[in-house]
Amino acid sequence: MNIVDYGWNEFFERDWNQKNTEGLFPGRIIADYGQQLRIVTDSGELLVKRPIKKLDNDMQPAVGDWVALEYSGETQAPGIKFILPRRTEFSRAAAGMEVKEQVVAANVDTVFLIQSLNRDFNMRRLERYLITAWESGAVPVVVLTKSDCCDDVTDKIITVYGTAPGVEVHPISCVTGEGIDDIKKYFAKGKTVALLGSSGVGKSTLVNTLAGKELLKTQEIRESDSRGRHTTTHRELILLPEGGLIMDTPGMRTLALWEADTGMEVMFGDIEELINKCRFSDCQHKTEPGCAVREALETGKLEQKRWESWLKLQKELEHLKAKKDNKLRLREKQWGKEMAKFQKEFYKKRYKG
Ligand SMILES: Nc1nc2c(ncn2[C@@H]2O[C@H](COP(=O)(O)OP(=O)(O)OP(=O)(O)O)[C@@H](O)[C@H]2O)c(=O)[nH]1
Ligand SMILES: [Mg+2]
Ligand SMILES: [Zn+2]
Question: pTM above 0.70?
Answer without folding.
Answer: yes
